[in-house]
Amino acid sequence: MTETGKKEQVRNMFNRIAGNYDFLNHFLSLGIDVYWRKRLVKKLKKNQPNTILDIATGTGDLAIAISRSIPNAQIIGADISEKMLEVGQKKIVKKKLQDKILLEEGDSEALKYKNGQFDAVTVAFGVRNYENLDHGLKEMYRVTKTNGEVFILEFSKPTAFPIKQIYNFYFKTILPLLGKGVSKDQSAYTYLPESVQSFPDGIAFLQHLENAGYQNVYQTKLSFGIATIYSGRK
Q: How confident is the model at residue 38 (pLDDT cuts 50, 70, 90)?
């Protein structure tokens, strides 16, 4: 995927796979993505935020997990893909959470929200899809309240043997084949490993968070470094 028009390409890609996204997400990660979100929610819950913005909310999995754990929170889930939001809205209505979670279409790099509107901002598996990473992070910082927090869950690149070798083989060879077989969309599941490989994970991403203005930045590696939770405070 080229940088030119990446935003529109990402929107179109997720619109195409929206119907199969939840199944593939849990199947291809062997269900461990649910555990990763729970770890993020546990960290988020400590300060009991009242207003939360979940960017790149997709079909709302993280927003739903947050709402279950922090029932008094008001959550807005924003995403660029209208088809993903349609799937998410059905889940929210089914779970009777529509008075707690509002899903709406939104551009992560041009957020329509006020300065300092949210106690916390979250993103799960979305920042690597930004067309302009630093601009997107600065927008997140802008809408975060003073002393508010950011929590970002993203794939990372394990370095320890043999996890690194197994991970790379699965991600680059097995996952695209399985993804294509179920979704009939080969490009979406070749894009995934490509986007992870090009993402500045670890210390490099913490530097991007600091450049956006966040302080006390910290990373928590999950599952031998396959995923990482990044956090910071405004």
A: very high
Given strand 144-155, what is the order of strands in its sheet? 101-105, 74-79, 51-55, 118-124, 144-155, 227-233, 215-222
**Which class in CATH covers the domain with range 6-157+200-233?**
alpha beta
> Would you state the pLDDT for residue 1?
47
Token readout for 102 is: 């509002």
In the block, residue with structure tokens 């990044």: 230
Domain boundaries, the chain: 6-157+200-233
Backbone angles phi, psi at 220, to 5 degrees: -125, 110
The three-state (H, E, C) secondary structure of 200-224, written as one string: CCCHHHHHHHHHHCCEEEEEEEEHH
- pTM for the whole structure: 0.93
Q: Which of 164, 136, 181, 135 is nearest to 226 (CA)?
A: 164
Tokens representing residue 221 in the block: 């590696």
Residue that is written with structure tokens 């630093």 in the block: 134
